[in-house]
Amino acid sequence: MDTPTKKQIRTWGKQILASDRGAFDRLFRSMYPRLVRFARRYHSRKAIADDIVQDVFVSLWEKREYIDPNQSLKAYLYTMVRNKSLNHIRDYSDEKVGLEDERLLKTTDPSHPDGDNGQLKKHMNEWIKDLPDRQREAFELSRFEGLDHDEIAGVMDVSSSTVNNHIVAALSTLRDRYEEYKQNKTDEL
């Protein structure tokens, strides 16, 4: 399913507030895969991520009368998934603490030309993995999940300017690493 616009999500939020099951179903179908992918950053097992996201949607429906149509429903969903994921980690400490799982970071931009048989993509994933946790979280929410700065601020419980600072720092680090990589490739030739 295509990525819903902010306007569409806001409309669904208003309809869900009025107990519209069809709008809830459309929101669920459009956001579920993205939220599971996000939850997988915290949990290595897909079944756990699926359960968490399903619980989030059950909670959303049960608390629908409290939806604020002036707040981002998308950010609210990501925040709920994050919080439930962290609660699950706390409650079941044998689960791997997220955002480090290498296989989940293999989602760089597929349209990027990668002329060296995946080496650049591999390095980029490693560089992202090496970012400080908060920078990495802000960067991934922005670039891989499509959240804007205000939505990320809601998920991370920080200000929009802090989100911007994290993303700018992450991009600067990644740009520096890429320039080093390019220089090393040139030196090899």
Automatic annotation (TrEMBL):
Domain RNA polymerase sigma factor 70 region 4 type: 130-174
Keywords, alphabetical: Sigma factor, Transcription, Transcription regulation
Domain of life: Bacteria
UniProt domain RNA polymerase sigma-70 region: residue ranges: 27-92
InterPro entries for the chain: RNA_pol_sigma-70-like, RNA_pol_sigma-70_dom, RNA_pol_sigma70_bacteroid, RNA_pol_sigma70_r2, RNA_pol_sigma70_r4_t2, RNA_pol_sigma_r2, RNA_pol_sigma_r3/r4-like, WH-like_DNA-bd_sf
Family that this chain belongs to: Belongs to the sigma-70 factor family. ECF subfamily.
UniProt xrefs under NCBIfam families: Sig70_bacteroi1 (TIGR02985), sigma70-ECF (TIGR02937)
Name by which UniProt lists this protein: RNA polymerase sigma-70 factor
Originating organism: Fodinibius salicampi
Organism placement in taxonomy: Bacteria, Pseudomonadati, Balneolota, Balneolia, Balneolales
